[in-house]
Amino acid sequence: MELQWTKIFLPEIKELIETKDFKGLRDFLRERHPADIVDILKELTPTERVMSFRLLDKNKISEVFALFEPVEQEELLKQFTEQHAKEILIEMQPDDRTQLFDELPAHVVEKLLKLLPPLERKEANELLNYPDNSAGRIMTPEYVDLQIDMTVAKALEHIRKTGLNRETVYICYIVDETKKLRGVTSLKNIILANPDQLIKDIMNESVLYVHTTDDQEKAAQVVQKYDILAVPVVDNEDRLVGIVTVDDVLDVVQEEVTEDFQKMAGIQTIEEEYFRVGFFKRISNRILWLVILVVAAIISQTILKNYSGVLSSIIALTYFIPMLTGSGGNTGSQSSTLIIRALATGEVKFKDWWKILLRESKVGVTLGLVMGSIAFIIVVITLGEITVALTVGISLCIVVSVGNIVGISIPLFFKFMKLDPAFVSAPLIATLLDATGLIIYFEIARRMLSP
Amino acid sequence: MELQWTKIFLPEIKELIETKDFKGLRDFLRERHPADIVDILKELTPTERVMSFRLLDKNKISEVFALFEPVEQEELLKQFTEQHAKEILIEMQPDDRTQLFDELPAHVVEKLLKLLPPLERKEANELLNYPDNSAGRIMTPEYVDLQIDMTVAKALEHIRKTGLNRETVYICYIVDETKKLRGVTSLKNIILANPDQLIKDIMNESVLYVHTTDDQEKAAQVVQKYDILAVPVVDNEDRLVGIVTVDDVLDVVQEEVTEDFQKMAGIQTIEEEYFRVGFFKRISNRILWLVILVVAAIISQTILKNYSGVLSSIIALTYFIPMLTGSGGNTGSQSSTLIIRALATGEVKFKDWWKILLRESKVGVTLGLVMGSIAFIIVVITLGEITVALTVGISLCIVVSVGNIVGISIPLFFKFMKLDPAFVSAPLIATLLDATGLIIYFEIARRMLSP
User: Fold this and answer.
1) B252 part of a folded domain
2) In chain A, which among 389-428 make CB contacts under 8 A with chain B?
3) ipTM of the prediction greater than 0.85, yes or no
């Protein structure tokens, strides 16, 4: 089956809609995977989309709905009848429902909560009460729990009866009469065991878990590190209240990566989706670093002012300022990206800092020599002045070598201070190197060009 | 259980080693999860590490070994006896083994392959023959396959017998007598079914799969999109040959992200780990863009030369060149990061290009007005010249607005041309904006400052 088949089928679907062949459309949608139906619906007009929704099988509606992004879910809810919205909300997985409510304005959430039956409403309210980005906020209370004194045969019967609507039946958690988490076992172990054995004899007591208030990243780390399908979440009294599954972990990983990208470009973290972020927030998230860097540019301005004597005597020196500062910044942002990413994935550790600095010094000097030579040739050809060419070439060589080391050192320093190295943004490095580069350039110029 | 407990236990372990309490160490390691053992071993000296390895239980050794990074595995193999290395290699999961062989020099792989029994050697050779980064290269041949005419009871018996060493028993693939993939079912469905039913009556025939030669990214996309635990891999004749599991997908996602980070910093993709990349390769991966940008700086140099008249009459204009070009570059790299990431996660689609441009024009102009005003004030205070301050302020406002739009437009244009937007590196945007910014600045200066 092809991933891109939506495009092939779209004309067919459009035709079914235009000819009002609702039976044909219903049959077509019945055969499709929910993820593919979402792809198709996204290509339709809002009216066509709502109409197609009505044709979906009952049990598929909430699954398809859950796969839309929250902002699109909100749009859809507006177009549904109250009864229709209620049916979908009740059928949704609790963790998907929390994610939707998270994004909606408070008064809409309140209205929707009223549509839910008492039990689901209580559950939804509890989930919404956990802190933002906590494990409690992304967990689902739909797991399989077994009593510690059950036999294997009894456990299997319990799974058969309750497993159908659980997010995973493959990992079973064992609790005692106070709901305290006591152990874990897999469906695989249960199947391989003797039916008369007790669950407590086949369970693993050293069960990994996180707390409801732990950061969602911690839940993600546990799932990734120990290669498990889900991690149980317990409350303050060690009672099992939910699980975080591996598919939620994939989402968390993507979110963290987006955060790192934004930090590195000097943007404060934006959690909402692109089209969801309001005008004021879009400005405020970006303005901080931009203004800091404009103000920081007072430094390079002051440096240039100090050297105005040299500058006005040889105006040609000005021509190469953008190249010098630019190359320093480019080299620095390359080396900082390499090190920030290597620290994030755990490929390098802080304790190897001297090895890293040694390696990068060699790389920096080599890059500097190559680039300096090229710059020398360019200046000789375009300007024809050997002394200026030498000044530019030597300066570039030094600026690139320094830029490379600065790009490595600052993230390492952040790591040493227990700060997130990803906060070292490319703009920050570039601004620092602007000032450094100018001083190097004019000090060399003064020595080379003074009579 | 805490993620960071290694630090707490390390002194204890060091003491066990120093007092040569091998029984104590063995007992301690027996209780630990393989992922935690790896964390501990990484903190030990090479000799201590090899010694601890010898104390591990037989069935745990290969699991622990597989969790090390390939470069560390190579180091370890050198210190093991041939017999020890052989035992570990035989016990390893086939996909972990391929990953190790992938990273080793050809002559080492050849030597290690000879240690394997004929069957495992054949399997390893086959896996190594698939192209780099293909689904075949990361798949494992350890899956559960059921015959299409089996009963549910027979299938369960088959799973009980063969399941123990499979990567996952939770998804079962159904093949016919020619090994052609015919359907899929889950352990959950098998357990819920009547023992006398035929597998072919409970299986899902519309099974998702990828081909051995498909890119590993495609396998990752299928697993993520359809939220499945594994995707089957078939050969050219649609015969089932392996599966790619969700834990491998997490690795692929991390790899892709690293690639995107590197591209955006103007680095050609480096697949090896940080300490693994040789000196020459580290230079060659970075030099291309750096040199292109030095050469491209001829443009800004030419522009400055053209305006040397204005420059030499008011030397103070020079002072603000780094701030102007820097701010343009910073704004552009922010907006390009936002759009590249939103395109990568699918939050925005190319068809919304006009909506994005409209949104970002407003943001850009607002950022420009704020930053231009601040710059105006700074110049008035530091230099005391209103005309120069006005020139700088107005220029900065325009440069930032233009920078914001350029940062958005180029990734969108790449997307339109069906190229990867992540190739739009921050250095590329910065260099383009250097030239644009300078022209804007001096054109305004000429008009404002001419008598």
Assistant:
1) no
2) 396, 400, 426-427
3) no
